[in-house]
């Protein structure tokens, strides 16, 4: 892996991966820091011990195998699978019928929030839907897995490259990607109202686009990935 890239290429790609994934960080102070700097064991055992534990709890990750299973779930299925089911159901209806159907549902209906958000996605997202949410989490878990040696550096790198390529193929620019992530986050939370976590993520994204020193402003969306990623099997499913 290391021999494939120059030092500068690798450094730039690591920054690109951080821009794609740091939006997953559930904090109002750390995301921008961890967009500029990669996780390190010595520093982040103090900064992020509780922080990384929270991530593992969120996705029920107990060990290295759980982490790998979760990463491949994001690549193969993800939250987008359920979103696409609702969106497909609604897309079969005319605009007027969709509006009437949603209006007929009580907000207490168990599927109301997800139907509402899927309908919003019909108007605002490209065909990939909320895949950005899954890809961001895939890359983010790869970064954590690499830090704690649940993944080898090569495994993590190849998976992040694959996810980045999927992101570039699925979205036309940073705006599309970030908008899809935010809607995906709301869908995963199953809430129409915007939670404090989503507000923090949205605030972080605004910072990425407006802060003069933001690394995102230095990176084109279609940043070259330099090498083939065919070695990663998107359909690989790890044993439970």
TrEMBL record:
Q: Please give the organism.
A: Thermoflavimicrobium daqui
Q: Where is the DUF1266 domain?
A: 55-221
Query: Would you tell me the protein name for this molecule?
Result: Peptide chain release factor A
């Amino acid at each position: 892996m290391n021999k494939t890239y120059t030092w500068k290429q690798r450094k730039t790609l690591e920054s690109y991966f951080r821009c794609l994934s740091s939006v997953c960080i559930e904090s109002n102070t750390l995301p921008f820091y961890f967009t500029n700097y990669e996780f390190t064991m010595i520093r982040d055992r103090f900064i992020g011990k509780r922080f990384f534990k929270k991530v593992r709890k969120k996705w029920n990750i107990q060990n290295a195998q759980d982490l790998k299973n979760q990463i491949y779930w994001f690549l193969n299925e993800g939250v987008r699978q359920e979103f696409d089911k609702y969106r497909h159901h609604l897309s079969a209806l005319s605009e007027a019928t969709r509006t009437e159907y949603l209006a007929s549902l009580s907000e207490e209906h168990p599927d109301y929030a997800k139907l509402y958000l899927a309908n919003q996605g019909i108007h605002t997202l490209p065909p990939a839907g909320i895949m950005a949410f899954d890809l961001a989490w895939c890359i983010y878990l790869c970064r954590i897995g690499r830090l704690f040696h649940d993944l080898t550096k090569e495994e993590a790198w190849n998976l992040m490259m694959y996810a980045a390529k999927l992101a570039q193929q699925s979205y036309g620019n940073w705006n599309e990607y970030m908008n899809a992530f935010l809607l995906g986050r709301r869908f995963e939370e199953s809430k129409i109202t915007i939670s404090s976590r989503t507000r923090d993520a949205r605030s972080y994204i605004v910072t990425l686009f407006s802060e003069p020193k933001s690394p995102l402003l230095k990176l084109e969306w279609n940043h070259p990935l330099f090498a083939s990623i065919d070695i990663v099997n998107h359909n690989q499913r790890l044993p439970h």
